[in-house]
Amino acid sequence: MTATVQSLYIYPIKSCKAIELKQMKVTENGPQWDRNWVVIDELGKFISQRNCPKLSQVEVKIENEQLVFGHESHGWIQVPLNQKEEKKEFDIWGQTCWGWEVSRESSRWFSDYLQRKCYFINSAEEFFRQSSSKRSHSANLVYADGYPFLMISQASLEVLEQQMNLQKGQLKMNRFRPNIVVSGMSEQQEDELKSFSIGELKFQAVKACPRCVVVNVDQENSKLNNKVLKTLATYRKTSEGILFGQNLVHLNTGHLCVGDEILPWV
User: Fold this and answer.
1) Are 256 and 201 spatial neighbours (Cβ–Cβ below 8 Å)?
2) Structural domains in the chain?
């Protein structure tokens, strides 16, 4: 069976809901608009589902050159994609980053929703940083944790469902927040990838992704199920962590489409 792209996702606001795509534009900084916005606290630390699971319920859209986000309980905010006001520095995993507060109104929205003082930050397509790995080329990214792409095979999710004694389809892929979901691979086959192409893009696999408590968060209601990470640990725990999915770097720009084949190259 040929391995193909089953689905594509971006997460414009770090730790908030995904936007599913049929076609993904890939820029020098990774998937266009992916993690281009982030919520930070008063101490200059980024806020994520690790400490605020409620972020999983914030819906996000990009339409008519506007970022639109909200929740049924707090209404909706709409801002131009490159809107920026005051410049702010903050920390992502020990690395100093910067961006601009989008607006006081949008920061107040997150402060009210999370019930803590927040600032809503936009990179405005001006900030980027680099992934760093001795195993691969470096690549640009914006506010993603460490790498611009995460790939997971559908088969790997189905094996986890079996390990948890769940029916097929009961465990949602969105817990694992991939950019690329692949069908036609065997379970964990993404671990074996090295250099390959998808459509117009060339990629290098970097390392399997060590997972944290975010995989326990139900992305629809923010409820926690500790069994997810515990079950993964029974068969995917290594000296590098509990691994699920493959981090990738891109070597060029272009477009990915649902249905594109995954092909090796040298």
Assistant:
1) yes
2) 4-31+130-264 (2.40.33.20), 37-127 (no CATH)
Closest Cα partner for 114 from 176, 60, 71, 81? Answer: 71
CA angle 172, 174, 178 (to 5 degrees): 130
The yes-or-no verdict on residue 266 having pLDDT over 60 is no
For residue 63, give the nearest of 2, 112, 19, 122 by alpha carbon.
19
How do residues 161-219 score in pLDDT, each as one tens digit? 999 999 999 999 999 999 999 999 999 999 999 999 999 999 999 999 999 999 999 99
> Facing residues of 66 across strands?
63, 80
Distance CA 155, CA 81 (A): 36
CA separation for the pair 260, 5 (Å, rounded): 5
Integer CA distances (angstroms), 247 to 101, 129, 196, 243, in order: 29, 16, 13, 11
Between CA 118 and CA 47 the distance in angstroms is 9
Number of H helices, E strands in the chain: 3, 21
> How much is the pTM?
0.95
Give 30-54 pLDDT, tens digit per residue: 999 999 999 999 999 999 999 999 9
Instruction: Show Cβ contacts of residue 100 under 8 Å, excluding neighbours closer than 6 positions.
Output: 84, 85, 86, 87, 88, 121, 122, 124
DSSP-assigned letters across all residues of 39-86: EEETTSBB--TTT-GGGGG-EEEEETTEEEEEETTTEEEEEETT---S
Closest by CA position to 25, among listed 252, 191, 265, 261: 252
Q: Are 248 and 206 in contact (CB under 8 A)?
A: yes
Residue 84 makes CB contacts below 8 A (sequence gap 6+) with: 99, 100, 101, 102, 122, 124
